[in-house]
Amino acid sequence: MTIYKEERSRGWLEAEHRQLTRSIWFSMVAVRVFSERATLTHQLGEFIVKKQDEALLKNPYFKVSVSGGSLINALHDCLVADKQLAPRVEWSKWQVYFSDERIVPLTHDDSNYGTFKKDVLDKLPSAVQVNVHHMDDSLVLNGDAQSNNKIAAEYEQILPESLDLVLLGCGPDGHTCSLFPGEKHKYLLRETTKRVAWCHDSPKPPSDRITFTLPVLKEAGALCFVAEGSSKQDIMHDIFDLKNDQLPTVLINKLYGGKTSWFVNDEAFVKVQTKTF
């Protein structure tokens, strides 16, 4: 496997050994592998800011969605804590959406919005205003199918026709958004009319969520996965060596590879054996 160093001044890749970054192409999917987390988060931030700048050349707002989990911590590190990148983030021109959300009150510890607010929004200077679009949690305590479907339908109504960037995580089981592998979860992957759907059987609690479906990802300008840590080793092997068609992440790579990037660290990628692509 060739080791690459990413040279920002040259705009692409210069082959070298003993460098921090590998950039690999699996079909049309760009995978960037980093040995140091600080380099991963900085380059992720550069990628996001580049997408921001490209979007703002054409439109007054940068429309981006985020997921939960460790992705939010990475966003804090690259967009808030990184002193080089933080001044370049035009927060007032961001329109932020959520790729999935747990059907819990927004103040609940499991809320993706709540985590994003605590780890990112609350760390910004008080004068900074960010347009954040979260679900209406007034119905969450009802807990019935009608209410949960209404929460999903109402969130779909506030989505733009297309997002400039969708930021995604990858679970150890290969799920992303709240699109899970397995036969009983395929109703979400087969959804073609609803852009946001109710996931009523998440294998990890809380079981009730709303999630983007594939039509949202299809219309997005770019998709970006972030995966870190030893807990992702087996699933990275399944995705990039075995290309397990039952995994939502593999399906997304195949359907939308031309606009899909992965930012991963060596620890997560150590079991991937593929040499040619």
TrEMBL record:
<dbReference type="GO" id="GO:0006098">
    <property type="term" value="P:pentose-phosphate shunt"/>
</dbReference>
<dbReference type="GO" id="GO:0017057">
    <property type="term" value="F:6-phosphogluconolactonase activity"/>
</dbReference>
<dbReference type="InterPro" id="IPR005900">
    <property type="entry name" value="6-phosphogluconolactonase_DevB"/>
</dbReference>
<dbReference type="InterPro" id="IPR039104">
    <property type="entry name" value="6PGL"/>
</dbReference>
<dbReference type="GO" id="GO:0005975">
    <property type="term" value="P:carbohydrate metabolic process"/>
</dbReference>
<comment type="pathway">
    <text>Carbohydrate degradation; pentose phosphate pathway; D-ribulose 5-phosphate from D-glucose 6-phosphate (oxidative stage): step 2/3.</text>
</comment>
<keyword id="KW-0963">Cytoplasm</keyword>
<dbReference type="Pfam" id="PF01182">
    <property type="entry name" value="Glucosamine_iso"/>
</dbReference>
<dbReference type="GO" id="GO:0005737">
    <property type="term" value="C:cytoplasm"/>
</dbReference>
<protein>
    <recommendedName>
        <fullName>6-phosphogluconolactonase-like protein</fullName>
    </recommendedName>
</protein>
<keyword id="KW-0378">Hydrolase</keyword>
<comment type="similarity">
    <text>Belongs to the glucosamine/galactosamine-6-phosphate isomerase family. 6-phosphogluconolactonase subfamily.</text>
</comment>
<feature type="domain" description="Glucosamine/galactosamine-6-phosphate isomerase">
    <location>
        <begin position="37"/>
        <end position="262"/>
    </location>
</feature>
<dbReference type="InterPro" id="IPR037171">
    <property type="entry name" value="NagB/RpiA_transferase-like"/>
</dbReference>
<dbReference type="InterPro" id="IPR006148">
    <property type="entry name" value="Glc/Gal-6P_isomerase"/>
</dbReference>
